[in-house]
Amino acid sequence: MSHPPRTGDAMALRCLFVVQGEGRGHLTQAMALRRMLRDAGHRVAGVVVGKSDDQAVPAFFRAAFEAPVTDVESPGFVSDDADRSVRPWATLRRALGRTPTYWRSLSALDAAIERHEPDVVVNFFEPLMGLYAVTHSPSVPVVAVAHQYMFLHPAYRFPSGRRDKRWAARAFARLTAWGASRRLALSLYPAPDRSQDDLAVLPPLLRPGVFRQPQDRSEPFILVYILNSGYADEVIRWHEQNPTVPLHCFWDRPDAAPVEAYDETLTFHQLDDEKFLRLMARCRGFVSTAGFESIAEAMYLGTPVQVVPVEGHYEQRCNAVDAVRAGAGVRSTQFDIGHLRAALDRGSTPEARFQAWVRQGRRRFVRELEAAARRPVAGSLGPRVAERILEAA
C-alpha cells in the first residue's frame, strides 16, 4: 500500500510512470516529463512499459531513466502483410486470445506499484492502467497524459464521417484513463480546461533536445519519417521521378544497417533520436506519418510538414486533420512528396505562437502532479465486476 502523499518544497514526489510502448510518441513524452520533474526536485521511482510481444523497449528510452524500466505485454495493433495498414478485427482477436497474458501483466503492474510506493502514477495512454483501475482498488492517485484526451474535449474537430470510429476512439481514450483523478490533454493549440470532466488542456511534451536545436539554419534536403517500413517503396518511387531532390529518410526496418545510401540523393537511416532532431532543425520540409510528437516538434522548429496517416489508423487520420487546423502544413494519402510544395510555397508556419504556447504550459505539468498527489482517491469497480466485464468480452 502506498504511503500518504507528501507535501512541501523539501519533500520530493515519488512517481511511477506507466507508458504505452506503441510507436515512440508516448515514450518521448515520458522522457520529457521526467526531466521536468527532476528539475522541480521530484523523481521517477520506476517505469512500466506496455508493449506487444514482438516489440522491444528502445535503448535510448532505458538510458533516459535512472529508475528501473520493466516491460509487460499489452494489446497492440496488427498490421497487414505489407506492414502498412492497421487490421482492427485481427487486433481485437489477438487481444481477446491473449487475455491470460494480460492478467499476468496486470499482476506485474500491481507488484510495481507495491514495490515503488509512488505518491502518484502517471499513465501515458497505456490501456493496462485503465484495466488495472477496473480490476483492482488502487489507493494511489493516477494522472493520465496523452494527446488523445483531446478527443473528449468539445473543441476538438474530428474528420468527417465514420461516427463508429469516432465513438471507438473516444471509448478507448476513456478506458485508458479509467480511475484517473486528472486527464491532461496535450494539444497543438490552446483550449479551455474542463474542470467538470477533470480535463486540462496543455501543450505537447517536447524532448529537451528540441529546445537545443538551432533555428537559423536551413538546407535544401527534405526529411522523411515512415512509421512502417512498407512505405519505403512509395518514397523510392517518388525519388526516382525527382532524383535531384535530396531526401533523408528514417525507418524502423530491423535488419537494415544504421545508414543505407540508396543513391547520391536518397539515404535511409535507422531510428536515432539525436540525429533525427538535428536533421529536422536543418531540413527544408518534413514528410511523415501522422504521429503527434513529430508534428509538434516540427511546428516548434518552424518546419513545414506533410502528414500521411497510416492506412486504416483512425487516430492518425485525426492527427492529420488537427495538424492542418493548427497550421502545421498539409496532408495527403500517399508519400507523394510533391504535396509538401504547397506548405513550402505558403512560406509561413505558426512557429512563434506555438513556441509561446509550449513555454507557457511547461510549469503546469509539475503543478498538476503535485495537486493530484494531494487529492483523495476514488474507489474502483473491484475485481468481481472486472471479471464479469472480461468474460462478457
| N-to-C span | 30 Å
Q: How many helical stretches?
A: 14
What characteristic shape results from the CA principal axes? globular
Rounded radius of gyration (Å): 21 Å
- The fraction of residues in strands falls at 15-25%
Unreliable spans: 1-5, 80-87, 379-393
Average pLDDT metric: 84
Structural class by SSE content: alpha/beta
Helix content: 25-40%
**E-strand count:** 14
Give the biggest beta sheet. Answer: 7 strands, parallel
How are the strands of the biggest sheet laid out side by side? Answer: 3-2-1-4-5-6-7
Compile the SSE list and pairings.
Blueprint (H helix, E strand, L loop, with lengths): L13 E7 L4 H15 L3 E9 L7 H5 L5 E5 L14 H10 L1 H18 L3 E5 L2 H9 L6 E5 L16 H14 L5 E5 L12 E4 L5 H4 L10 E4 L6 H10 L5 E5 L7 E3 L4 E5 L2 H10 L2 E4 L3 H10 L3 E3 L6 H12 L3 E3 L8 H7 L4 H23 L9 H10 L1
Parallel strand pairs: 1-2, 1-4, 2-3, 4-5, 5-6, 6-7, 8-9, 8-12, 9-11, 12-13, 13-14
Antiparallel strand pairs: 10-11
Helix pairs in contact: 4-5, 5-6
Describe the structure.
40% of the residues lie in helices and 17% in strands. It has helices at residues 25-39, 59-63, 88-97, 99-116, 127-135, 163-176, 208-211, 232-241, 273-282, 292-301, 314-325, 340-346, 351-373, 383-392; strands spanning 14-20, 43-51, 69-73, 120-124, 142-146, 182-186, 199-202, 222-225, 247-251, 259-261, 266-270, 285-288, 305-307, 329-331. A 7-stranded parallel β-sheet has the order 3-2-1-4-5-6-7, sandwiched between helices. It has a 7-stranded mixed β-sheet with strand order 10-11-9-8-12-13-14, with helices on both faces. Strand 12 (285-288), helix 10 (292-301) and strand 13 form a beta-alpha-beta unit. The two termini are 30 Å apart.
